[in-house]
Amino acid sequence: VKDIDKDNKSYEVLKNIINMGKILNIKTTTEGVENENIYNKLLELKPDFLQGYYFHKPSAVSDLF
User: Fold this and answer.
1) Using one digit for the tens of pLDDT, what is the confidence trace for 23-57?
2) Quick check: 31 and 1 in contact, CB under 8 A?
3) Has this prediction a pTM greater than 0.85?
């Protein structure tokens, strides 16, 4: 995911993985959404779930309670 905004080969590979998930009825989660450019590219591909620093830094369980 980290280079899909700069590298067309990475974008195409990820696009095909997400499409395969849709065909097989498997939910896809994209990790590593680090910035708005990557986020916007992923919106084009429509994975089921997104996660990464763009939304929130990782939290330890002890930080949640």
Assistant:
1) 999 999 999 999 999 999 999 999 999 999 999 88
2) yes
3) no
Supply the Cα-derived Rg of the chain in whole angstroms.
13
CB 6 within 8 A of CB 27: no
- Residue that the structure tokens 């997104």 belong to: 50
Place of tokens 């997400």: 18
Per-residue HEC secondary structure of the chain comes to CCCCCCCHHHHHHHHHHHHHHHHCCCCCEEECCCCHHHHHHHHHHCCCEEECCCCCCCCCHHHHC
Cβ atoms 25, 63 nearer than 8 A: no
